[in-house]
Fold this protein.
Amino acid sequence: MSLKIRIGCQTYTWEMLGEKWKGRVDDILDAIASAGYEGVEISNNMIGNYYQETERFKEALEKRNLTLAAFAYGTPYGFSESKYWQEELEGTRKALEFVKHFPESVLCLAGAANPNNKENRKGKLSNACKFYNEVGRLGKAMGIMVTFHPHSHHGSLIEKAKDYEQLMNETLPGVVSWNPDTGHIHRGGEDLLGLLGKYKLRIKHIHLKDTTKEGKWMLLGKGICDFTRMFEFLNEIDYTAWIILEEESDVARDNIGGAIQENLRYVKSLIN
């Protein structure tokens, strides 16, 4: 199998370390480039001073032969509370202004969440869908693709098939795209290939993660995700966008460089 895709690395691997991570953005870019990746997806939590210095960030990427595949934007409120929308919209406008300097990049909005209150899940998810649509319209006007990234962390509003169905029904095709995450789909208890197939027309950006049946993060190929079949599916639908490898396992906490290298080696063994 030979897919015409590009492979990037997500910086959450460093972000998950919290205060234990004492390095710089340049250290992260060095590690990703050294591992052999073509691109990087970085978040508003990790971009640091480069957020105000786009030309310097371009130079930092070019120096390492990297491309900004995507910029991930999230907030503590999860887009589900309308009282925070003004603040969140201001944040996404800033993110879009940043992304417009990188023509190959997309804006990935974090998964809808309501960490403090599980009541009225359906209504909260509807709020998030309205937010996604508004940002999608802003992005489309600027020529920027906007995607949403469902997850399975605490407070997630998008885990089960019914949540995905509501999400797809209430967001606008052609305005808001889907960034599926293999690990989060499994952790939500759903069928990976079934879900990907049902909403294949919305897929424009993909995250790969692996997990055990119990939901523990693993290196790619060490858990239950059937990546061989997934890549066959992507080949069938002529997927040519970015594949982003995102690593949250205990192995990465101890050896980030080794973990991201092993993930890339594994994925290349499946697609080449």
Q: What stands out?
A: The beta strands are 6-10, 39-43, 67-73, 106-110, 146-149, 176-178, 206-208, 210-211, 217-218, 242-245. The longest strand covers residues 67-73. The mean pLDDT is 95.
